[in-house]
Amino acid sequence: MSNWIDRGKKVLMNTYSRFPITLTEGSGVYAKDEHGTEYLDFLAGIAVNVLGHAHPAISKAVEVQVNKMLHCSNLYHIPQQTELAEKLIRNSSFDKAFFCNSGTEAIEAALKLARKWGGVNKDGAAKIVAMEHSFHGRTIGALSLTGQEKYQKAFKPLMPEVEFVPFNDIDALADAVDTATCAVILEPVQGEGGIFPARQKYLQEVRRLCDQSETLLLFDEVQCGLGRTSALFAHQYYGVEPDAVALAKGLGGGFPIGALLAKDRAAVFEPGDHASTFGGNPLASAAALAVLSELIDGQVVQHSLEVGAYLHEKLSILATQNPRISEIRGVNLMIGIQLDRDASPYVEKCHKAGLLVGKAGADVLRLVPPLIIEKKHVDTAIDILTEVLAE
Ligand SMILES: *Cc1c(COP(=O)(O)O)cnc(C)c1O
Predict the structure, then answer these.
(1) CA 317 – ligand 1 centroid, Å
(2) What average pLDDT does the structure give for the chain?
(3) In which region does residue 378 sit, left (phi positive, over 0), alpha (psi from -120 to 50) or beta (all else)?
(4) Which residue has the CA at smallest separation from atom 6 of ligand 1?
(5) What is the mean pLDDT of residues 298-319?
(6) CATH level 2 (architecture), domain 69-296
(7) Where are the domains of the chain?
(8) Which secondary structure element, helix H or strand E, spans residue 112, and what is its range?
(9) SS3 of 73, please?
(10) What is the DSSP string of 286-344?
(11) Fold match between 3-55+299-390 and 69-296?
(12) Measured distance CA(17)–CA(178) in Å, rounded
């Protein structure tokens, strides 16, 4: 008997409250469970499967690399890693890349970079200013920057020298940033906290404040980067350049890889400062290269703008017709549907109707579909949401 649900409960640590669904394969924007039931996937493994499931470009790149070499360590030069860095840098305003395996590791790298930078360039400045309702990951460093008590409370004491301020409030930030501050960190579009986009003017003011106070500006684009906002990077959508950016989720299209990109002036690491055994290994880099080629050269990012506009148009109509929806927030294909009540029952109703969606915060439905969705998929999703939210 397969019976994955009961078997998993016996042997897996109790870290996830999983839905009673066992997904076993997928194709494009559809995922299939063990019984062959198909779901239209508007969660994409939490903003990871930017090219959907079983995309031939990723499959091919991974297959070719699997037969050459999986891993060799960063004691040697790795062509795929260098090519990946070149492609990221060519398509951004950054100068240097560091590769790791997840979002939280990209944040840890940013944190260490900021601490070293403050030590070298700002008289030992070590304080980091972060945002309320932020989410930066689960390791102690990243958790220390996560402005949500529910994630932090069981794990205190956390890292010192972190101050939280309200998001989108420049006065509060100006009060917090001082000579002891090495960096400000924020998500241009807050994800887990409930899908709250930054205001463009705010980000411009944050950039100015950081310039004036000689403070590093770090963006966490782990969720909102890689095409989700209709630009390759969220900061390109906003037209505001940070000194470094953390990436992960969509970067490998489902293959685990994270990255920290930084401007030369911020890239203060030297041999021995930081490392990752697996980081940017040949296989992960090959997968990410395939993803970037599709996003950029294959014009998937451009495509997502068109279909994103269509999705927003349909959602705003739905919002005017349904009193349960108090707001539609987000940028392009990173969307929060603010409900006037707990969103959990609606997530499950969507599942029963064949649509995978997520939650962000207690009362927000989260839509982060693959960037390859077509208008017909939007129509199907809207039909299901209309029906489910009318119940
Ligand atoms: C998911 C997420 C992280 C953590 O990524 P992991 O790969 O789960 O460690 C960090 N920051 C943001 C904004 C995220 O959405």
Answers:
(1) 31
(2) 97
(3) alpha
(4) 103
(5) 97
(6) 3-Layer(aba) Sandwich (3.40)
(7) 3-55+299-390, 69-296
(8) helix 103-121
(9) coil
(10) HHHHHHHIIIIIT-HHHHHHHHHHHHHHHHHHHHHH-TTEEEEEEETTEEEEEESS-SH
(11) no
(12) 41
Q: Is the CB of 135 under 6 A from ligand 1?
A: yes
Separation between Cα atoms, residue 97 and residue 215, nearest integer Å: 20
- The H or E element spanning position 108 is helix 103-121
Reduced 3-state DSSP string for 219-257: EECCCCCCCCCCCCCHHHHHCCCCCEEEECHHHHECECC
Residue of 50, 99, 136, 219 best suited for mutating to test ligand 1, as the one with most atoms within 8 Å of CB: 136
Residue 347 CA, ligand 1 centroid: distance in Å = 21
Phi, psi (deg, nearest 5) at residue 326: -95, -20
CATH number of 3-55+299-390: 3.90.1150.10
Tens digits of residue pLDDT in 102-111: 999 999 999 9
Residue 2: what pLDDT? 82
Task: Assess whether pLDDT exceeds 90 at residue 293.
Answer: yes
Question: What is residue 1's predicted lDDT score, i.e. its pLDDT?
Answer: 57
Q: Measured in angstroms, how far is the CA atom of residue 100 from the centroid of ligand 1?
A: 13
- The residues, ordered by sequence, that sit 6+ positions from 306 with a Cβ below 8 Å of its Cβ are none
If you measure from the C-alpha of residue 87 to the centroid of ligand 1, how many angstroms do you get, rounded to a whole number? 22
Tokens representing residue 12 in the block: 């897996």
pLDDT at res. 391: 81
- Segment 161-188 shows an average pLDDT of 98
Looking at residue 153, the DSSP 8-state letter turns out to be G
| CB of 103 closer than 6 angstroms to any ligand 1 atom | yes
